[in-house]
Design a protein that fits this description.
Blueprint lengths: L2 H7 L2 E3 L8 H10 L4 E8 H5 L16 E6 L3 H13 L4 E6 L4 H5 L10 H14 L3 E10 L4 H14 L4 E9 L6 H4 L7 H10 L4 E5 L5 H9 L4 E4 L1 H5 L1 H5 L2 H6 L7 H17 L4 H5 L12 H11 L7 H23 L1
Helix pairs in contact: 2-14, 4-6, 6-7, 14-17, 16-17
């Protein structure tokens, strides 16, 4: 897939989320939106280069456009990991400069790299030399006692000077000492105006806004306000249909809306193939629990799948049963409202 097509897809993206955005999750999301850019979970460069954990690069061809997010801080190792990712077929290689977890800090990568713009510049330069696909960066506005208004322009200037044309900015600081990763997603205040200022300072840099965006309406508003793209995280996972089923029409101006019911039907052959190959139903359906979020029948849908997907022999028949019971409950709710 060409760079211009991936850049266009970046108008809306689903954030890389550890333990969540695996290949099954991405396949589900692709059934809802043909256009949205999808990201892997973060894969560390040591795991690929030293550990040769090539299974971490596995993905379904249907997932494109799909980006590989790497974590690391050694330029040569990141370059080799980027090369492996490009060889595996990913459309973009993204460097994580935003994750605040202790495990990431101990590896000297993630958000801690916000303190070392020169090293990040070396990393992305080496990665770009190693691959033909686009290299991008996901970062915070700063960490700890840094003044974001001072350090973020310098940080972005270093990236641009080393050929980076697209970044995603999580509009919060990361506090590396004192806040957990979960707290770092919510407690530091959002600073959208600063990210908009960066767009004014770097008009040719494609900037996607991340952090605190939980609806398609909010994404549209950010785009209307001048952002090149919007990245949505937990909301796209917990309520995927609310974010992705109308995305192609509303964000990209192309294609037709999908429905949660239609997505379930579309996933059945994938589920059959996964189970036939020795996989467990729950590996797929754990990502589907929020499909009917906010709708009548959502509780039944979640309960049937969560209580039964682990059972021996569970497969697409269980998903069909869950869908039938969900639709039945939805119909009863509609009848009750009509009375």
């Amino acid at each position: 897939m060409g760079r211009s097509m991936v850049s266009k897809a970046a108008r809306l993206s689903v954030a890389p989320m550890m333990d969540w955005t695996d290949t099954h999750c991405r396949t589900l999301h692709r059934m809802m939106s043909k256009q949205t850019l999808l990201y892997t979970e973060m894969v560390t460069s040591p795991a690929l280069v030293r550990g040769r954990a090539m299974h971490l690069l596995a993905h379904n061809p249907i997932e494109h456009p799909v980006a590989l997010q790497l974590g690391g801080s050694d330029p040569a190792e990141l370059a080799e990991a980027a090369y492996l990712g490009a060889q595996a077929g990913y459309d973009e290689i993204n460097l994580n400069v935003g994750c605040p977890s202790d495990r990431v800090q101990s590896g000297a990568f993630g958000a801690v790299l916000m303190r070392d713009a020169a090293l990040v510049a070396k990393c992305v330069s080496a990665m770009r030399r190693a691959v033909d696909v686009e290299v991008t960066v996901k970062c915070r506005i700063g960490v700890d006692d840094q003044n974001p208004a001072e350090i973020l322009p310098e940080f972005l200037s270093r990236l641009v000077g080393n050929g980076i044309e697209r970044v995603t900015i999580h509009a919060r600081k990361a506090w590396l000492d004192g806040l957990s990763p979960k707290e770092n997603r919510d407690i530091p205040p959002l600073d959208y105006p600063l990210v908009h200022q960066m767009k004014e300072l770097f008009p040719n840099l494609h900037i996607s806004l991340n952090g605190g965006i939980t609806t398609l309406e909010a994404a549209e508003a950010a785009l209307d306000a001048g952002m090149d793209g919007v990245m949505i995280g937990r909301a796209a996972y917990h309520s995927p249909a609310e974010i992705l089923c109308q995305a192609d029409r509303r964000i990209y101006g192309t294609g037709e809306d999908t429905t949660a019911e239609g997505v379930v039907e579309a996933m059945l052959p994938y589920i059959d193939a996964h189970v036939a190959n020795g996989g467990k139903l729950g590996q797929v359906t754990r990502h589907m629990l929020g499909l009917f979020s906010g709708r009548p029948g959502a509780r039944i849908w979640r309960r049937v799948l969560s209580e039964n997907a682990h059972r021996e022999g569970a497969g697409s028949a269980l998903v069909r049963e869950a869908l039938a019971r969900t639709m039945e409950q939805s119909a009863l709710s509609s009848q009750a409202q009509a009375v």
